[in-house]
Design a protein that fits this description.
heterodimer, A: mainly alpha, B: 178 residues, alpha/beta, 2 domains, five-stranded parallel beta sheet, two-stranded antiparallel sheet, globular
């Protein structure tokens, strides 16, 4: 591997949590403005996590701690592979291994809220994993390779509907209404995170920043313009702003679905979009 | 209170107090006023304050209503589940002193009969502005506790006993030398 791509990847790996944090901070600010409130400062998620790292450690059992760290390590590993422009399939599997560790952490406690949250998290995975995997497969079909390095043209020209399907993945993964069933605040407090406190809650929040970076990064791959770094970055930022703006709007105007409605809405919609897109790719003979 | 914490941690604590709201046999008057603070009109989220219905995530315990024999266990349990550093705010007359229920046969009195209280917000019910003011006072106290300019009674006693123990030890050592 050349020096410069590796160096830029390393810089992105260092920036990843801050990018995730800023997106969440802006999300909270803009959501507040949409509800006619002033809203917290943009750096509020950073304050929250630093505060959580400074709190007393109260753990329910040791397994919980191990699973929290395993979740963190898996997601950071996936992010570093992403920044090094590696294989999308491996990134996907690592990300999901991390999610499984979080579910196991939630199952390891006796709290009913935690268990219901873990059940719902598994259901959410059932909803977004096929879509995410099919998006990666369709990238592989269009590019003839699963490595990020091999992308030679803006994917959005060939796979516009797969990008729309990725929005569903983003909404489910980031617990956005109407798909926020596993951390439903008013029903099951905060679901999978209910038994975590202090440092380990902070660790989970930090991992969510990485996850957000990873999902937004996967979407940004669709507008990558090979050979033109500055233009690629601008296109990525515009895409992320547009997509996240739509997600925030939907988050604010919809109510939470029940779990069976989630499966009925997300799965057919996502798989249908990708199927239509693959037919299109086959029709123009791009593959 | 950990005085050795970094400056960033100290600032962050003051900027993100997450609230646990517990209703000890209150008439709901104070609770409605607390929830009014979360509405767009007052919008306490602009100070980083979030209402988390979970003691394990909370920093500030907000209690309304007088304590009776049924809920004193729950109150103590919730207080113990909040990780340090934490502050307790009592909202309303009943929580502060027992209010009109102070001499009922089943009522213990104010919240301070069960757990240590940092800030009292009097009123029946207090206005949302007064509640926000109470949170600000609690944060001032948290700041003083962090800087070491204010010590809780429990810590004072602990220091005192430690000093006494040290004294006794030196005296014993002296005696042994003699």
């Amino acid at each position: 591997m050349d020096f410069w791509p590796a160096f830029i990847g390393f810089i992105f790996l260092l920036l990843a949590p801050f990018i995730g944090m800023l997106v969440i901070g802006l999300d909270r600010k803009i959501t507040a403005r949409m509800q006619n409130r002033i809203g917290p400062p943009v750096l509020q998620p950073l304050y929250d996590v630093i505060k959580l790292f400074g709190k007393e450690d109260k753990i329910v059992n040791r397994g919980q701690v191990v699973f929290a760290y395993a979740f963190f390590v898996m997601v950071v590993l996936a992010t570093s592979l992403f920044c090094l422009r590696s294989d999308l399939l491996v990134i996907f599997f690592l990300l999901n291994a991390g999610a499984i560790f979080m579910v196991m952490g939630a199952y390891s406690t006796r709290s009913a809220f935690s268990t219901i949250g873990a059940n719902r998290e598994l259901l959410q995975m059932l909803a977004y994993e096929p879509i995410f995997l099919l998006v990666i497969f369709s990238i592989g079909y269009a590019v003839k390779s699963f490595t990020i390095d091999a992308i030679y043209e803006p994917l959005i020209l060939k796979l516009p509907l797969a990008l729309v399907a990725m929005v569903i993945v983003l909404m489910i993964k980031m617990q956005k209404s109407p798909f926020d069933i596993s951390t439903a605040h008013t029903e099951i407090i905060s679901g999978t995170m209910v038994e975590y406190s202090g440092t380990y809650l902070g660790l989970l929040k930090l991992t969510h920043w990485y996850e957000l970076f990873l999902i937004l990064g996967t979407m940004a791959l669709f507008v990558i313009i090979p050979g033109n770094f500055v233009l690629s970055i601008i296109a990525m930022l515009v895409l992320i702003a547009v997509v996240y703006g739509i997600v925030m709007l939907i988050d604010n105007i919809t109510t939470r679905l029940t779990w069976d409605a989630l499966l009925k809405v997300a799965l057919p919609l996502g798989i249908g979009l990708i199927t239509a897109n693959l037919i299109y790719v086959w029709y123009i003979g791009g593959a | 209170m950990a005085e050795a914490d970094g400056a960033l941690t100290k600032i962050s604590r003051l900027k993100s107090p997450w609230i646990l709201h517990y209703d000890c046999s209150s008439c709901n008057g104070c609770d409605i006023e607390i929830l009014a603070c979360l509405t767009p009109y007052y919008d306490i989220e602009r100070f980083g304050i979030l209402n988390k219905g979970n003691p394990k995530h909370a920093d500030v315990l907000m209690v309304t209503g007088s304590v009776n024999h049924r809920n004193k266990v729950v109150l103590k349990n919730l207080y113990d589940q909040i990780p340090d550093p934490k502050v307790v705010i009592v909202v309303g007359a009943c929580g502060s002193t027992g209010g009109v229920f102070h001499n009922c046969y089943n009522v213990l009195g104010g919240v301070d009969k069960v757990i240590p209280v940092d800030v009292y917000v009097p009123g029946c019910p207090p206005k949302p502005e007064a509640i926000i003011d109470g949170v600000v006072k609690a944060l001032e106290k948290l700041k003083a506790l962090q800087d070491g300019t204010w010590k809780r009674e429990k810590e004072k006693e602990k220091e005192k006993t430690e000093k006494d123990d040290a004294k006794e030890e030196t005296e014993e050592a002296k005696k042994e030398e003699e």
